[in-house]
Amino acid sequence: MTTALTSLPAKRLLVVDDEEGPRESLNMIFCDDFDVTIATSGEEAIEFSKEAPFEVVITDIRMRGMSGIDVLREVKKIDAHTEVIVLTAYETLATARQAISLGASEYLKKPFDLDHIQKVVDACYQNYLFTTQRETVIRQNVNAAKNNFLEIVRHELNTPMNGILGFIELLQDTQLDEEQHDFVTTIRDCSLTYFEHVQDILTYAKLSMGESELSKLSFNPATMLLKLINEATSAAQVAIQADIPENLPQYVSGCEHEIRIVLRKLLQNAVKFSSGEDVRVAVQFAHTGDSEIRLSFEVRDTGPGIDPEYLAGGKIFDAFSQGDSSLSRSHEGLGLGLAWCKSVSDRLGGSLIVESELGKGSQFTFSVVLHEEEA
Question: In the chain, how many domains are there?
Answer without folding.
Answer: 3
